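testing teh design pipeline on a random one, pls ignore if ur not involved
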């Protein structure tokens, strides 16, 4: 493994920053303390900064000593999740109901370490933009930064992202050209019937039984309308209705999520959901209202940039530790918005099996969005080295 020695020497310093951020998690668009920490460190290392894109975003501008119009962007997310931490070790969350359960504290720390190195070793041509993004967890902070002028104020030839991946061994990376993460979409279906006494159901119109039938019917979109070679998920996760055992209610509400890798399949599912909901409910004398919200598009890596990243990674960890055809996941990422605007690639860095966790971790697995999760500090010099090598090699390309 070819790590940059100065970054290895800083590992404990960067780990302290990471653990401080972990202990003070902030939710989407509330990353005030976190962005202050990031900005203070960048300024301390002589890096020009711009604040406020996306509300709490921070962009660092690192110019090489050699004049060149070449540019590249490196992105890390900063926000935490609205969940209670189960860990009790020293750096556990001090903010009740908030936790860095997805490793954004580690992502921020790795990019900070890379920024420090790049600032102290400016023997490159062009400009590196380090992007510290708010509100990845459902807030669409990437889109907010873009809407605020990220790519117009800081023109980038390409932009790159990275996420830790529990279960993948430390020292291993995964990526693939094309879709690597799915689109994230939500639906709400409101079924209006006519309430009545449960002992006299013939006097009303039952939205509960209609919801039951509709739930079954919607799955035929996946099993009968979708091309079976094109992955998709339609999950009904909530059905809310009723308040008493002897009352047929007026309304039932159904909610859930749809995940796809292509827009064509997403269009198909949305259209068929509307058709099936309207006709099924009408057949049972109910009225249906369908709300379909497209939150995050699929995260689609660009082919040339993916091949480039794979080459950079092989030079650091060797070919056997780089899976450049990793199986995509139905999870979602708002880095997708950046990849819609600018070419780039999103990679996964192995976070291990959880044995790295300090005494006092929770009893749950070290998985993303789990109360017992913790980022693996062993990754800090590896992830930072990748960022530096990626920037250097991108800017040195013809």
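output:
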């Amino acid at each position: 493994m070819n790590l940059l020695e100065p970054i290895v020497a800083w590992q404990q310093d960067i780990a302290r920053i990471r653990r401080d951020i972990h202990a003070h998690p902030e939710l989407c668009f509330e990353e005030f303390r976190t962005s202050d920490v990031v900005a203070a460190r960048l300024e301390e290392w002589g890096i020009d900064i711009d604040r406020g894109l996306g509300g709490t975003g921070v962009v660092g501008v690192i110019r090489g000593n050699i004049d060149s119009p070449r540019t590249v962007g490196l992105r890390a997310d900063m926000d935490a999740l609205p969940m209670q931490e189960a860990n009790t070790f020293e750096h556990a969350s001090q903010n009740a109901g908030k936790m860095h359960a997805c490793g954004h504290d580690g992502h921020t720390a790795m990019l900070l370490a890379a920024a420090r190195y790049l600032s102290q070793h400016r023997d490159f041509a062009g400009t590196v933009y380090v992007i510290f993004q708010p509100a990845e967890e459902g807030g669409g902070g990437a889109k907010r930064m873009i809407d605020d002028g990220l790519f117009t104020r800081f023109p980038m030839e390409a932009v790159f992202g990275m996420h830790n991946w529990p279960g993948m061994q430390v020292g291993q990376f995964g990526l693939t050209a094309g879709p690597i993460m799915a689109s994230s979409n939500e639906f709400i279906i409101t079924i209006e019937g006519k309430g009545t006494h449960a002992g006299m159901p013939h006097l009303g119109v039952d939205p509960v039984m209609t919801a039951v039938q509709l739930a079954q019917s919607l799955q035929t979109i996946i099993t009968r309308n979708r091309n079976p070679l094109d992955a998709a998920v339609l999950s009904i996760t909530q059905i809310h209705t009723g308040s008493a055992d002897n009352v047929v209610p007026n309304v039932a509400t159904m909610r859930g999520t749809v995940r796809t890798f292509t827009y064509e399949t997403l269009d198909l599912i949305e259209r068929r959901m509307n058709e099936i909901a309207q006709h099924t409910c009408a057949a049972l004398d109910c009225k249906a209202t369908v709300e379909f919200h497209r939150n995050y598009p699929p995260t689609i890596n660009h082919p040339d940039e993916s091949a480039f990243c794979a080459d950079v990674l092989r030079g650091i960890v060797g070919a056997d530790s780089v899976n450049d055809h990793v199986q995509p996941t139905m999870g979602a990422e708002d880095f997708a918005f950046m990849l819609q605007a600018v070419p780039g690639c999103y990679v996964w860095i192995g976070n291990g099996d959880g044995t790295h966790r300090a005494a006092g971790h929770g009893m749950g697995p070290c998985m993303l969005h789990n109360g017992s999760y913790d980022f693996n500090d062993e990754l800090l010099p590896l992830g930072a080295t990748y960022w530096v090598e990626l920037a250097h090699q991108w800017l040195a390309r013809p």
